[in-house]
């Protein structure tokens, strides 16, 4: 199959007059090829969303099973995210173990697009929508458990508050392949920089549930913006971060490919649901917001095509905005085969119209939308 008639974003640049040939689930060739005419728009790599709590009416926390992961994978693929990192927020240890087993089982059953697991908690201090009763420091036993899980999963990302995790723990985790991210924290600038020196490489949903940027106390936000070793995830829905800051954040991290977009999606993604349950608490959907009954934001009602659109509308160049939803998050999790269109890469593709709305999606060369 050859797809043509659209500009092609290869993960770095936009190309005119390029076609993409697919065979056996891979990109066979790119160049001046003619085939199925897409009628304009942009053909880009499938989105890579590395913070996905739920979708298709299901939440990983509520039912850590292969079936939940199948529902999430299918829902997000239709929204353009052909690769996702399912996210388990703070939960008892046995739920984490169930989630690890669910990823393994789902892969064995042929569920596509599951790149690993993101554990957001319980080693956090700012609860947000998390259960505060379950928050706790990390122990040596936890480190051994997470290292084992990383070997099983291939990719394990853990969000921690650095004041609850020692530098030795961070270093040990990184040495066994765990991606350590900073978030939900009261830690100051110096502590976050020290955690980065120990091996932490990511900041989870920049600005939210962390110490903010002040001129005499730069906080975790300041560390994220000034430390080139740290990549930062951004929920670009205009609610978690004001639209007026989006371009400013991009400029602070420009040139080092360290800013990426996440949906922080919940059960409602890909559905018309108006509410759902998270850890026995009601979450309501209204006006593009997801909140607990007390008004606390609880994830986001967002998909990555909308996030890309919001970045472009804020003044970020189109190529940079697309990279933040494709190549950059793939690189953050060490998957240089994802988020780009090049010879031999997976045939995971999204066709966007000129307004950046998803028109068609292919995963492994098979059309899913």
Task: Describe, in plain words, how this protein is organized in 3D.
The protein is built from ten helices and 23 strands. The chain is of the alpha/beta class and 369 residues long. The protein folds into two domains: 1-44 and 339-368, Roll (Urease, subunit C, domain 1), CATH 2.30.40; 47-338, TIM Barrel (Alpha-Beta Barrel), CATH 3.20.20. It has an eight-stranded parallel beta sheet with strand order 8-11-12-13-14-15-16-17. The chain has a six-stranded mixed beta sheet with strand order 3-2-7-21-22-23, with no helix packed on it. A four-stranded mixed beta sheet has the order 5-4-1-6, with no helix packed on it. A hairpin with a 2-residue loop joins strand 4 (19-23) and strand 5 (26-31). The chain is globular. The model has no long low-confidence stretch (mean pLDDT 97).
* CATH homologous superfamily placement of the largest domain: Metal-dependent hydrolases
The main β sheet shows up as: 8 strands, parallel
Structural class: alpha/beta
Kindly state the percentage of residues in helix.
25-40%
Average pLDDT, to the nearest integer?
97
Describe the strand arrangement of the main beta sheet, using strand numbers: 8-11-12-13-14-15-16-17
Strand content: 15-25%
Q: Compute the number of helices.
A: 10
Question: What is the count of structural domains?
Answer: 2
Which fold name is given in CATH as the topology of the largest domain?
TIM Barrel
CATH class of the largest domain: Alpha Beta
What is the alpha-carbon Rg in Å?
Answer: 19 Å
């Amino acid at each position: 199959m050859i797809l043509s008639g659209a500009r092609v974003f290869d993960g770095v640049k936009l190309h005119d007059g390029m076609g993409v040939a697919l065979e056996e689930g891979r990109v066979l060739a790119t160049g001046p090829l003619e085939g199925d005419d897409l009628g304009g728009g942009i053909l880009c790599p499938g989105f890579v969303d590395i913070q996905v709590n739920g979708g298709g009416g299901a939440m990983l926390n509520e039912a850590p099973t292969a079936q939940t992961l199948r529902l999430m994978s299918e829902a997000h693929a239709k929204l353009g995210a052909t690769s996702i990192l399912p996210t388990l927020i703070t939960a008892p240890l046995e739920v984490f173990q169930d989630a690890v087993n669910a990823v393994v089982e789902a892969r064995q059953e042929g569920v596509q697009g599951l790149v690993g697991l993101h554990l957001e908690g319980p080693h956090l201090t700012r609860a947000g929508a998390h259960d505060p009763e379950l928050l706790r420091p990390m122990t040596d036993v936890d480190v051994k458990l997470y290292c084992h899980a990383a070997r099983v999963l291939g990719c394990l990302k853990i969000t921690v508050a650095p004041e609850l995790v020692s530098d030795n723990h961070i270093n040990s985790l990184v040495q066994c392949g765990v991606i350590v991210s900073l978030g939900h924290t009261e830690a100051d600038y110096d502590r976050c920089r020290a955690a980065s020196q120990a091996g932490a490489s990511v900041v989870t949903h920049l600005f939210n549930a962390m110490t903010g940027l002040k001129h005499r106390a730069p906080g975790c936000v300041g560390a994220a913006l000034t430390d080139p070793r740290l990549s930062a995830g951004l929920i670009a829905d205009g609610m978690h971060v004001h639209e007026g800051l989006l371009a400013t954040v991009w400029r602070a991290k420009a040139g080092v490919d360290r800013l990426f977009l996440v949906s922080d999606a919940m059960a409602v993604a890909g559905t018309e649901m108006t509410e759902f349950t998270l850890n026995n608490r009601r979450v309501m959907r209204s006006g593009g917001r997801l909140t607990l009954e007390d008004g606390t934001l609880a994830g986001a009602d967002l998909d990555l095509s909308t996030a890309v659109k919001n970045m472009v509308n804020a003044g970020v160049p189109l190529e940079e905005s697309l990279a933040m939803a494709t190549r950059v998050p793939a690189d953050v999790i060490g998957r240089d085969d994802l988020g780009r269109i090049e010879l031999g890469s997976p045939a995971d593709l999204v066709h966007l119209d000129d307004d950046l709305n998803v028109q068609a999606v292919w995963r492994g060369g098979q059309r899913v939308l």
